[in-house]
Amino acid sequence: MFREKIKVLDCTIRDGGLMNNHNFDMRFVREVYKALSEAGIDYMEVGYKNSQRLFSSKEYGKWKFCNDQDIREMIQGIESATKISVMVDVDRVDVDDVLPKQDSPVDMIRVATYVKDVDKAIYLVNHFADKGYETAVNIMAISRALDNELTECLQQLEKECKARIINIVDSFGSLYQETTEFLIKKAKSILKTKEIGMHAHNNQQLAFANTIEAIIHDANYVDTTIFGLGRAAGNCPTELILGFLKNPKYDIRPILDVISKEFIPLQKKIEWGYFIPYAITGILDEHPRTAIALRESDRKENYREFYESLVGEVEE
Amino acid sequence: MFREKIKVLDCTIRDGGLMNNHNFDMRFVREVYKALSEAGIDYMEVGYKNSQRLFSSKEYGKWKFCNDQDIREMIQGIESATKISVMVDVDRVDVDDVLPKQDSPVDMIRVATYVKDVDKAIYLVNHFADKGYETAVNIMAISRALDNELTECLQQLEKECKARIINIVDSFGSLYQETTEFLIKKAKSILKTKEIGMHAHNNQQLAFANTIEAIIHDANYVDTTIFGLGRAAGNCPTELILGFLKNPKYDIRPILDVISKEFIPLQKKIEWGYFIPYAITGILDEHPRTAIALRESDRKENYREFYESLVGEVEE
After folding, report:
1. What is the pTM of this model?
2. Domain total of chain A
3. Are residues B256 and B284 in the same domain?
4. Has residue B271 been placed in a domain?
5. Which residue of A has its CA nearest to B236?
6. In this structure, is residue A2 part of a structural domain?
7. How many whole angstroms separate alpha carbon A103 and alpha carbon B167?
8. Per-residue pLDDT tens for A126-177?
């Protein structure tokens, strides 16, 4: 029953890091790595490879920079077949920070880009591919992309870019299944030589559903996070995708353990999941930053006021 | 863009009542009725019409019995076009408790049944239809129904039953979109003269997605609950379906208000929503009763142990 080609990339530490300035301590990250390894997860994404000249290491934790020595410390002594991924943002990386693959514990570099920045993304991907890494592109904010520009972007990726995997990113958690189907089919029709992946957000409780929808239409790479940890409403839960995929190589039990031991206590420190302000930004196809700000204010349960502040800004 | 035929039935008080023995106080229920009325919701289901000879009114609140005088008190003085629904379980109702429609504030009676009890359900439905009520059948535990028995059940409903609406009930929250599609198409193919509805549970965060899937395949009745309140993981959230449906008659703002004022405080008293034990029973297509018991015990976060207790019971 299972489709062997489907690979799971767990980005708990990377996407979850957006909620705590990438300040997970080494013990916690090693527990996650151990659980993912025992569960048979294919990739673990640990953070961003940002330039330390652009961001302060006083303000941000180590997973904002993903130095090779920190990754080595994370994996040391843990038996694993799980590959390591890091994310790179256009205009925030110093390519000289990235050593040739044979000198690094990193296996995959994923470049996150908006449609408009695809030329820069292709340059970066090809640079990293030439250094020996597996590469992927994550097309962010896809719900806002104009169809003609997305077409051109996908055509360029097919022709000019060495990335093996192109991921559709529902940054605002605004996609319904029909649009997910449309986007995955569109990507498949243009990206003849590449694999398609899905990165979903859970603002409208549709992250898992949209991930299944992408799989139905032949996406073979899926991004997930343990217990759905991730920015704002979070992501497609790793535990649910393991229940859905029938591949016997996966084992849900180490994920259940690490949720019990690490993620239940973490809920007292970081807030993520289904909250009405995140649902509202999802429904309205807006970035969740206003909702995150609301949740940190003393008006965090004033939902009608928040809704009206967003729909009241009529644009012409 | 909207499909006018789609009707929303909010069963917050009925399904939510399964978590507190139907003990919502009158003030709370009136606030919900007011919000649903202002939001333009088509139906509100307030509880079960159970026989007071079978259940003790000391043990259960008034929404286990739904006496007409309680419903009259609930609606008094509130302007509303929202119709009132009550649910009846096979073998738990005294049909003589149900007055002719013209003497009752109830508009619709829905009979909940397993496939095996469909004959009893048809008898009840036809009795209530003859008394003048709108009627519906909710086919529970549909994920466990054998295909040939479901076919026969649907054929009987089409031929012998006066119910206008037949609802597919994913009691265990175990359906994925493909099976929802299969079941809705199957029901549509047999129930030529009836409307199809969907009642989803959220164990795997798929209640909203499965409801959308049912709508895509021409179900016109959807069950929802405010903030997803309902047994265990709860149901398809009313606020999300209002964001999805584009019918201008609906207004999400009264729902946002009542969540802020009533449901956020309620979360401190009743636990519902996405919890790992409910996800596990959903993945395994099991009734959530074991998970509910676990959540009430001192081992409520021992997920691996719980999972193994369920998968360890190998049946031959």
Report:
1. 0.97
2. 2
3. no
4. no
5. A205
6. no
7. 60
8. 999 999 999 999 999 999 999 999 999 999 999 999 999 999 999 999 999 9
Q: What CATH number is given to the structural domain containing B207? A: 3.20.20.70
Which residues in chain B (73-92) have CB-CB distances under 8 A to chain A? none
Q: How confident is the model at residue A313 (pLDDT cuts 50, 70, 90)?
A: low
| Residue A73 falls inside a structural domain | yes
Q: Which of A9, A2, A4 is nearest to A199 (CA)?
A: A9
Q: Is A17 on the interface with B (CB under 8 A)?
A: no
Which structural domain, as residue segments, surrounds residue A207? 7-266
- Per-residue pLDDT tens digits for B115-127: 999 999 999 999 9
- Please, are residues A130 and A95 in contact by the beta-carbon 8 Å criterion? no
* Same domain, residue pair B281 and B144: no
Q: Which of B207, B237, B256 sits opposite A307 (nearest CB)?
A: B256
What per-residue confidence (pLDDT) applies to A309?
A: 95
Distance CA B13, CA B31 (A): 11
What pLDDT, in 10s, does the model give residues B49-65? 999 999 999 999 999 99
Token pair in block for residue B4: 């006018």
**Same domain as A180, residue A49:** yes
ipTM for the complex? 0.96
- For B279, which of A240, A274, A303 is closest by C-beta distance? A240
Closest-CA residue of chain B to A260 = B301
